[in-house]
Design a protein that fits this description.
flat
C-alpha cells in the first residue's frame, strides 16, 4: 500500500494478470448467481411490453396450420398508467440542518439541488429509471462529478442500462452502501478502448486476442449480438481460438468495471474542541499536512477505514486501478419490489395471464374463421360440372349454385364447430387476472362506464393507487439515496467560490437569480459555506411542471374571485399565454409597479439629495430664529411678565418644529442610504455575472 504523499507502486505484468483474473472470478460469480437468468427474463419482459409476445416456435406452428396469432397487448396500457402516476408525483427535495448545520445553508443547498435537477433534466432521467424498474425489474442512476463543462466540476446524473449492471450476489438490503461490490460491464471495440484508456492498453489487448483468452467464454465477442451479457459464439466457446482466421473476426472485448469496498489506512484531522474529523488529502506530503495541523491547532489520527476501490479490466489487461474519488458507489438502484436480495418488477408477473389471453383470443378467432367453410359431404361422382376440390375452394362463396346428378345424394354441409362453452369466460378471466395482479383498475385506465359518478371514480382511483404504493414507496427510498449522494458530492467538490443560478422554489416561473457560494470576504469570513455542517434530506412530491402551472393559475383565479387581491401581473405570470412575461411587465408599468430604470433611479436619487439639502437649510434657518428669540428674551427680562411669556411660547414652538424637521431629515437620509445599498447590491450582482461570463470566453491565441 502506498504511503501518503506518494503514488502507488506500478503493478508488474504478473500482478496485473493476477488482478485481472481476480476481477474476472468476482464478475463470473455475480454473473452465475442469477444475472444470466435475469438477462433472459428482463429481455422477455421488455418484449412483452413492446408487444412481441409470441414464442418463435409457437408462431411457426400456428403459421403452418394456417391459424392466427393474435396479440392483445394489455401490459402496455397497464404499465403506462403506473408511469403516468409517477409523472404526477415529481421529486421534491429539501434539506434541513442537523447538528451544527445552519438553516441558511440548508436553504442554499435546497436551491442548489433544484439547479442540479434542472441541469440534468432529472425529471426525465427519473422517468427512464422508473420505467426500467417496472419493465425490466431494475433501474439505475449513475451519479458522479463531471469536468467536461465546468472546470470546478458539476454533479452529473445519468440513467444506466440495467442489463449492464451486476449487483453483489450477497446483497440482502436495498441500500447499496451495505453491499460489498457492484459491476458494470459493456462490450467495447479496440478503437473505443484506445480512445478512452490509451494506445498502450489497446496494444496489449491486441496481443491477448491473438494469443486467445484464458478467462472465459464471453471475454471476447465474435458474434453480431452485443447487447447485455450475451455469451460469445459457439465456435469460440468450443475453443477455436488458435485459428488465425477466427482471430480476424474480433468484434469487441468485454470491459468489466468493478467498484468494491476495501480497507485503507487513512489520516484524519481532528478538532480536539468540537471532535470534528476530516480526512487528510491523500496526495499531501508529510510537511504539508503537519504544517496545516499546526496552523489550525488540529491533531492527526491514523486509522483503517473502508474505501471504494475502482478497478477496470478487459480480459487480462488492467485498464484502471485506483482508489475511487467518491465515498460510495456511483450507482444508485431502483427496485419496484425487493425481497431478500431478489428484486423484481411489475411486468414479470403479467406474462402468464397475457399469454393466456393471446392464445384464447387466437383460438376464438380460428373457430370463427373456420365456421364459414366447415366442409361438405359429397357422394363420389355426384357433382355436375364441379369437382370436390372446386367445392372445397369455392364452397363458402355467396350465391354458390350446386348441381348434382339425378339419383345421387345431394351435397350437404358439415355442421361448423361451435365455440366451446365457457371459452369466452376464460378469456375474460385472463383479462381480469392482469388487472388484479397489477392493481390497475378500469378507473385508473380511464375505461370506467360513463354512468359512474365522479366521486365513485375518484374512490376507485385512490384504491388503485394503494395497490401500486409499494413501487412508489421504493421510488421515494431511491430518491432519498440519490439526494444523499448529491449532497455528499456537493460538500466534497463544491468547495471553491462559484456562482450558481438558483430558482425560487415558491415560484418556479420566475427567472433564475445568481448566488455566490463559498464566497470569501475581506475579513476572511466565508459566506454560504457548503462544506460545513450536517444536513438531513427531506423527500416530498411535487406535481409535474405543466400540472403545477395549471394548478397555480386555477387557484389564483379562484382566490381572486373569492376576494383576495391578487395583482393582475401575477395572474398573467401563471397563465399559459405566449410572451406572458412581456405582458406582465407592461401591466406593472401601467400600474406603476415596475422598478425604475437606471436613469430613473439616478434622477430619484438626485431629487432625494436635493430634498435633504432643503431640509438641512430649513433646520439651519429655524436654529438661527431660535437664537434670535433667545437673545431677545434675555434683553427683555425686565419687561412685563406677559411679554416674556409670549417669547417663551414662540421659542417652544420653534424648537418643536426643529425637532420635526430633524426627524424628517433622518428619515430621508435612511431612505437614501437604503436605496444606495439596493443599487450597490444590484451592481455587484451584475458585475459578478459579467465576470463569470467573461471567464468562460476564450482568451485568444491558438486553441487548436
Amino acid at each position: 500500500m502506498a504511503e501518503y504523499g506518494k503514488k502507488e507502486k506500478k503493478l508488474s505484468k504478473a500482478e496485473q494478470h493476477e488482478l485481472a483474473k481476480e476481477q474476472w472470478n468476482s464478475y463470473a460469480r455475480a454473473r452465475d448467481n442469477g444475472h444470466e437468468d435475469y438477462i433472459d427474463i428482463a429481455q422477455q419482459c421488455d418484449a412483452f411490453y413492446r408487444g412481441h409476445q409470441w414464442d418463435a416456435a409457437d408462431m411457426a406452428a400456428l403459421d403452418d396450420q394456417g391459424r392466427p396469432a393474435l396479440t392483445i397487448n394489455t401490459i402496455l396500457p397497464t404499465i403506462n398508467s403506473v408511469l403516468g402516476e409517477q409523472t404526477t408525483r415529481r421529486m421534491d427535495i429539501a434539506f434541513k440542518p442537523r447538528g451544527r448545520g445552519q438553516q441558511e445553508i440548508a436553504d442554499v443547498l435546497t436551491k442548489l439541488f433544484m439547479q442540479i435537477s434542472d441541469n440534468n433534466k432529472l425529471d426525465w432521467v427519473e422517468s427512464q429509471v422508473f420505467s426500467d424498474g417496472l419493465i425490466q425489474d431494475r433501474g439505475w442512476f449513475d451519479v458522479r462529478i463531471d469536468f467536461d463543462d465546468h472546470i470546478q466540476g458539476e454533479v452529473r446524473v445519468t440513467p444506466k442500462d440495467p442489463l449492464d449492471i451486476l449487483i453483489d450476489p450477497d446483497a440482502k438490503e436495498y441500500d447499496p452502501r451495505t453491499w460489498n461490490e457492484i459491476f458494470e460491464t459493456r462490450w467495447m471495440t479496440l478503437d473505443e478502448i484506445e480512445e478512452q484508456y490509451g494506445q498502450d492498453k489497446a496494444d496489449k489487448l491486441r496481443i491477448t486476442v491473438e494469443q486467445g483468452s484464458q478467462l472465459g467464454t464471453d471475454s471476447i465477442e465474435y458474434e453480431e449480438n452485443r447487447y447485455g451479457n450475451t455469451a460469445a459464439s459457439v465456435e469460440y466457446n468450443q475453443g477455436n481460438t488458435s485459428n488465425p482466421e477466427e482471430n480476424r473476426q474480433l468484434r469487441a472485448i468485454r470491459v468489466i468495471e468493478r467498484q468494491y469496498y476495501k480497507l485503507k489506512e487513512c489520516m484524519f484531522y481532528v478538532d480536539s474542541v468540537t471532535g470534528d474529523m476530516r480526512e487528510v488529502p491523500y496526495n499531501w506530503s508529510k510537511k504539508k499536512r503537519e504544517s496545516f495541523a499546526d496552523q489550525f491547532g488540529l491533531e492527526i489520527l491514523t486509522k483503517h477505514t473502508k474505501k471504494v476501490r475502482w478497478t477496470t479490466t478487459a480480459d487480462l489487461v488492467v485498464l484502471h486501478d485506483e482508489w475511487s474519488p467518491y465515498d460510495t458507489f456511483t450507482l444508485v438502484p431502483y427496485f419496484p419490489y425487493w425481497r431478500r436480495g431478489r428484486p423484481f418488477g411489475m411486468v414479470r408477473n403479467l406474462i402468464s395471464p397475457q399469454e393466456q389471453l393471446n392464445k384464447i383470443s387466437s383460438q376464438e378467432l380460428h373457430i370463427v374463421n373456420t365456421t364459414a367453410n366447415s366442409g361438405w359431404i359429397v357422394e363420389t361422382g355426384s357433382l355436375n360440372g364441379m369437382t370436390a376440390d372446386d367445392l372445397e375452394e369455392h364452397g363458402a362463396e355467396t350465391g354458390l349454385v350446386l348441381e348434382f346428378n339425378r339419383g345421387s345424394s345431394p351435397p350437404s354441409k358439415i355442421p361448423p364447430n361451435q365455440i366451446p362453452t365457457g371459452l369466452d369466460r376464460i378469456s375474460q378471466k385472463a383479462a381480469i387476472n392482469i388487472k388484479q395482479i397489477s392493481g390497475i383498475s378500469d378507473a385508473m385506465l380511464g375505461t370506467d362506464s360513463p354512468e359512474v359518478s365522479g366521486v365513485a371514480i375518484q374512490a376507485k382511483q385512490n384504491r388503485g393507487a394503494m395497490m401500486i404504493q409499494v413501487p412508489l414507496d421504493n421510488l421515494t427510498k431511491t430518491r432519498q439515496y440519490l439526494a444523499e449522494k448529491v449532497l455528499n458530492l456537493v460538500q466534497a467538490y463544491y468547495t471553491e467560490e462559484r456562482l450558481i443560478q438558483i430558482t425560487d422554489e415558491t415560484d418556479p416561473l420566475k427567472r433564475r437569480q445568481p448566488m455566490k457560494v463559498n464566497e470569501i470576504t475581506t475579513e476572511g469570513m466565508i459566506i454560504n459555506d457548503l462544506t460545513l455542517g450536517e444536513y438531513d434530506v427531506v423527500v416530498g412530491t411535487a406535481p409535474a411542471r405543466d400540472n403545477f402551472e395549471e394548478i397555480q393559475f386555477a387557484e389564483a383565479i379562484a382566490l381572486r374571485q373569492a376576494g383576495v387581491p391578487i395583482p393582475d401581473d401575477m395572474i398573467v405570470e401563471y397563465s399559459h399565454l405566449a410572451r406572458k412575461g412581456e405582458i406582465a411587465q407592461r401591466i406593472r408599468q401601467m400600474q406603476g409597479q415596475e422598478p425604475p430604470s437606471e436613469e430613473q433611479a439616478q434622477l430619484m436619487q438626485f431629487q432625494a439629495e436635493a430634498e435633504i439639502r432643503k431640509t438641512q437649510l430649513e433646520i439651519a434657518q429655524m436654529e438661527a430664529e431660535v437664537q434670535r428669540l433667545q437673545s431677545e428674551a434675555m434683553l427683555n427680562q425686565a419687561k412685563a411678565e406677559g411679554t416674556a411669556g409670549d417669547q417663551q411660547l414662540k421659542l417652544a414652538d420653534m424648537q418643536s418644529k426643529i425637532q420635526t424637521k430633524r426627524e424628517e431629515l433622518a428619515l430621508r437620509e435612511r431612505l437614501s442610504e437604503m436605496t444606495n445599498q439596493v443599487r450597490t447590491g444590484q451592481s455587484e450582482t451584475q458585475a459578478a455575472s459579467k465576470i463569470a461570463v467573461a471567464a468562460m470566453k476564450p482568451t485568444g491565441g491558438n486553441n487548436g
